[in-house]
């Protein structure tokens, strides 16, 4: 779910001071955002901020994860080590999970491994959104928390979303982006038609929203950031699968169809074909209109034909 993680990262960029104060629960001042410079690990769901507080100057690294993945502790350790080496500062690591893991999984707040007498260890702060109290989040009066309220305990109700919408519309800046992302997250725990009634899900606003544009384009950039020729086949296929997942989720949200509805027609499409289909999924006024756009996408030429 890279699209959700990326949208969250966009909000952290807009509200970095509010975010770090909430995550660290200590008075600090954001000095600079380093996420854009942290390109040697090519991450799209992390946020790296240089802050200054009572402890001195240090790095606040946040890993945003929509759903459980078993390699997150190892990844958090690796990112912390890379950031520590690159900037020569202490690092405080936070991992934020949006949705609960499977019932047989217990989330951990550390990576620990021993091999031939050597020990690798990294602690990190664990934030599980479903364990947080939505009413306390509202009481914090922190605008960056508002889109996440539906995923919190007692936050998945019409009344809570209405409260978030009202407060978001009182914000002097970035209200459209906050409300757009609130709609995205609320759609995972509430009926889509109800979300449409509560939130301004005007498709023109959504399409122009920097958050949605970043969500839709991030995976495309990942595959082409070093040039299409330089991107490895494995990387391109991973990006294609991420973009396909994004497209299926968009269609499910907009038209109420199963994510597998177009499986047989989507599987052969490459990156070049998927990007305009993302745009069509946002702009189409009906499922039939999207299908018309899909029918204009030429079938990819088999590699054997290209080589002859």
Layout of helices and strands:
Layout: H1 2-14, H2 16-24, E1 29-33, E2 46-53, E3 56-65, H3 72-87, E4 91-97, E5 110-115, E6 118-123, E7 125-128, H4 134-139, H5 158-168, H6 175-186, H7 192-198, H8 203-208, H9 210-224, H10 233-255, H11 263-266, H12 271-283, H13 287-295, H14 303-307
Parallel strand pairs: 3-4, 4-7
Antiparallel strand pairs: 1-2, 2-3, 5-6
3D architecture notes:
This protein is α/β, with parallel strands linked by helices. The protein has 3 domains: 2-131; 134-208, no CATH class; 226-300, no CATH class. The chain has 14 helices and 7 strands. The chain has a 5-stranded mixed sheet with strand order 1-2-3-4-7, sandwiched between helices. Strands 5-6 form a two-stranded antiparallel sheet. Mean pLDDT is 80; it is low at 39-44, 223-231 and 301-308.
Instruction: Give helix and strand order, one letter per element, not per position.
Output: HHEEEHEEEEHHHHHHHHHHH
List unreliable stretches of 5+ residues. Answer: 39-44, 223-231, 301-308
When the domains are counted, the total is 3
Secondary-structure content class: alpha/beta
User: What share of the residues lie within helices?
Assistant: 40-55%
Q: Approximately what portion of the residues adopt beta-strand conformation?
A: 5-15%
- In total, how many beta strands? 7
* Computed CA radius of gyration, to the nearest angstrom: 21 Å
Annotation keywords:
308 residues; alpha/beta; 3 domains; 14 helices; disordered C terminus
What is this structure, in a nutshell?
The chain is an alpha/beta fold. It contains 14 helices and 7 strands. The protein has helices at residues 2-14, 16-24, 72-87, 134-139, 158-168, 175-186, 192-198, 203-208, 210-224, 233-255, 263-266, 271-283, 287-295, 303-307, and strands spanning 29-33, 46-53, 56-65, 91-97, 110-115, 118-123, 125-128.
């Amino acid at each position: 779910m890279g699209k959700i993680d990326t949208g969250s990262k966009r909000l952290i960029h807009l509200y970095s001071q509010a975010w770090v104060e909430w995550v660290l629960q200590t008075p600090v001042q954001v000095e600079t955002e380093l996420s854009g410079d942290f390109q040697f690990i090519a991450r799209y769901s992390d946020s790296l901020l240089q802050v200054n507080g009572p402890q001195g100057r240090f790095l606040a690294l946040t890993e945003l994860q929509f759903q459980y993945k078993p390699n997150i502790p190892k990844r958090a350790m690796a990112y912390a080590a890379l950031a520590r080496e690159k900037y020569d500062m202490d690092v405080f690591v936070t991992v934020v999970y949006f949705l609960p893991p499977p019932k047989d999984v217990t989330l951990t707040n550390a990576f620990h491994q021993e091999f031939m007498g050597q020990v690798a260890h990294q602690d990190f702060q664990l934030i599980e959104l479903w364990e947080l109290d939505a009413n306390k989040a509202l009481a914090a009066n922190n605008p960056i928390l508002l889109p996440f309220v539906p995923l919190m305990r007692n936050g998945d109700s019409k009344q809570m979303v209405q409260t978030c919408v009202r407060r978001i519309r009182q914000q002097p800046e970035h209200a459209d982006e906050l409300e757009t992302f609130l709609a995205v997250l609320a759609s995972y725990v509430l009926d889509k038609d109800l979300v449409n009634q509560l939130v301004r899900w005007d498709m023109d606003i959504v399409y122009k929203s920097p958050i949605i544009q970043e969500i839709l384009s991030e995976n495309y950039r990942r595959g082409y950031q070093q040039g299409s020729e330089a991107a490895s086949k494995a990387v391109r296929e991973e990006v294609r699968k991420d973009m396909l997942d994004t497209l299926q989720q968009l269609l499910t949200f907009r038209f109420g169809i199963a994510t597998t509805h177009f499986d047989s027609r989507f599987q052969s499409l490459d990156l070049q074909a998927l990007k305009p289909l993302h745009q069509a999924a946002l702009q189409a006024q009906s499922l039939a209109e999207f299908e018309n756009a899909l029918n204009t996408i030429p079938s990819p030429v088999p590699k054997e034909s290209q080589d002859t």
